[in-house]
Amino acid sequence: MAAYTFDGKCLKSRFGNRIGEIEGKIIKDAHSNKVGEIVGHTIKDAHSNKIAEVKNGDIKDAQYNKIWTTDGVRQIIDGPGELPSAALWVLLLR
Predict the structure, then answer these.
(1) Distance (Å, whole) CA 32 – CA 60
(2) Long-range contacts of 38-41 (CB under 8 A, 24+ apart)
(3) What 3 state SS string does the chain have?
(4) Which of 3, 28, 32, 82 lies deepest, with the highest CB count within 10 Å?
């Protein structure tokens, strides 16, 4: 069983605690503060600085160093979508 669940909008822990949510392309924490956004295949922080990119199943940082894979994220977050789950992992869980 995955440690977190994502229903397409809200990320929750296995105990049901809300960790964050995606509202359109904006990612917010549990207190509804903007922590980042998804622009194309790029994950940006709250100040629009590129912090990661998802390409061909790999998650790479701003310097294009591989930091993890989307398959690895799927083992932690159970839910739809490759890019949204990766963005939630990068911005809220990593």
Answers:
(1) 26
(2) 38/83, 38/84, 38/87, 41/83
(3) CCCEEECCCEEEECCCCEEEEEECCEEEECCCCEEEEEECCEEEECCCCEEEEEECCEEEECCCCEEEEHHHHHHHEECCCCHHHHHHHHHHHC
(4) 28
Per-residue model confidence as pLDDT tens digits over 17-53: 999 999 999 999 999 999 999 999 999 999 999 999 9
43-89 residue pLDDT tens: 999 999 999 999 999 999 999 999 999 999 999 999 999 999 999 99
> Within a 10 A sphere around the Cβ of 5, how many other Cβ atoms?
16
Output the six-digit token pair for 56: 């061909």
Q: Is the pTM of this model over 0.90?
A: yes
Q: Do the beta carbons of residue 62 and residue 13 sit within 8 Å?
A: no
Taking the chain, what is the end-to-end CA distance rounded to the nearest angstrom? Answer: 19
